[in-house]
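hey can u check if this looks right to u? its 211 residues, i copy pasted from the old doc so theres a chance i mangled smth
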Amino acid sequence: MLEVQETERREVARELHDEIGQALTAVKLSMDALRRASGAGIDPAAFAESEELVDNALQQVRSLTLDLRPTVLDDLGLAPALRWLAGRQQKLTGARLETEIDLPAARLDPAIETACFRIAQEAITNSLRHARPQRISLSVRIEDGAVSLIVADDGVGFDLAAARAAGAEGRSAGLTGMEERAHLAGGEFEVRTAPGGGTEVRARFAARRAA
């Protein structure tokens, strides 16, 4: 099921980029040409507002495309994708996000790369949204023949039992989704947290290489 979802995400991201993104770019180029041709016969304030609307729409399409399926994961692999993710979150939120990524140049199994990326993405997003951390750390390395992923923060923490109960009742999907991703890729998943004690999300996978 998750593999199907990732395929659908990739296809939707491609359509957003190729169709809507290119259409908005064409509109912007046409507006630029119209402004040059019209000269003084155009209301500068109204035209500037229209250009800003198009620019904002383009930015939203690009952001949605990256959230759905960042091309860096498919093109370059897990390590560059995680560095991109950390940098993007820092730029968007101003959060202090430290990375320690030590992976071989050879690509890992795509299922493991996708699971690691999505778990890291969800864990960082949850931390920024709920934990009010001063610092978030992202660590990925090979240890004893396994890929070890750790996302930790010094935020407010949470009641793990209550969060699992909410997930079982369908009121919160984040924790359950990360756990499912890990298990479907043949990995292990663990969360360590307590109210006031920060949170640590851990996932571990056999370091299978890409075919």
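Residues 73-206 form a domain with the Heat Shock Protein 90 fold (CATH 3.30.565.10).
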